[in-house]
Amino acid sequence: MTTSHEILRLLDLEEIRAVQLRYATGTDSRDWELFRTCFTDEVDVDFSAGFGQPAVRLDADDWVAMTAPRMESFAATQHMITNHVITFDDDDHATGVAYVRASHHLPNSTGDSDQTVYGYYTNRFERTPDGWRIAALRLTARWMTGNFGIFQAALAG
């Protein structure tokens, strides 16, 4: 027999998956208000694996303000987040690991117009009064294909 706790846990799992999908959708649609709904007020961001950027803790509004112009420098992006594995530390904290394939498109005169990152996110989630949110975001890039120069231009922007 299914208990109410098990049903609530299933709802939590679905909400956490939905946060990851809002993250991708907000990025690719350039809907920065939607993107902001993914995070707690402060967020730990670690993109050091593959990008050499140091891990930082910042105000989520600042993270959105930094991300928006980088992603908007591409003609298009597509982030696919799959294979969600979510474990709960307690009723209000969870860790989610999910595969990502992030494609970036920018026609240019220096080579390939595309660059793709393959890897996974390891995110820490917290239950807030507004629902589950990402408290820590870590991207582990396993490999990349295409013209990394277009991504470097976005990082410099």
Describe this structure in words.
It is a single chain. The chain has a single domain, classed as Nuclear Transport Factor 2, Chain: A (Roll). With 157 residues, it is of the alpha+beta class. The mean pLDDT is 93. The chain is elongated. It has a six-stranded mixed β-sheet. It has helices at residues 4-29, 32-36, 48-51, 60-72, 148-156, and strands at residues 39-47, 56-59, 76-90, 93-105, 114-128, 131-146.
From the alpha carbons, calculate the radius of gyration and give it in angstroms.
16 Å
CATH architecture: Roll
How many domains would you count in the coordinates? 1
DSSP summary: helix tally: 5
- Count the strands? 6
The parts where pLDDT drops under 50 for at least 5 residues are none
Distance separating the two termini = 55 Å
Order of helices and strands: HHEHEHEEEEH
Identify the overall geometry: elongated
What CATH first level would be assigned?
Alpha Beta
How would the blueprint of this fold be written?
Elements: H1 4-29, H2 32-36, E1 39-47, H3 48-51, E2 56-59, H4 60-72, E3 76-90, E4 93-105, E5 114-128, E6 131-146, H5 148-156
Parallel strand pairs: 1-6
Antiparallel strand pairs: 1-2, 3-4, 4-5, 5-6
Pfam family, one: SnoaL_4
Protein name: SnoaL-like domain-containing protein
Domain SnoaL-like: 9-138
Summarize, please.
The protein has 157 residues and is an alpha+beta fold. Helix content is 36%, strand content 46%. A hairpin with a 2-residue loop joins β3 and β4.
What structural keywords apply?
Nuclear Transport Factor 2, Chain: A; 6-stranded mixed β-sheet; SnoaL-like domain-containing protein; alpha+beta; 157 residues; SnoaL-like; elongated
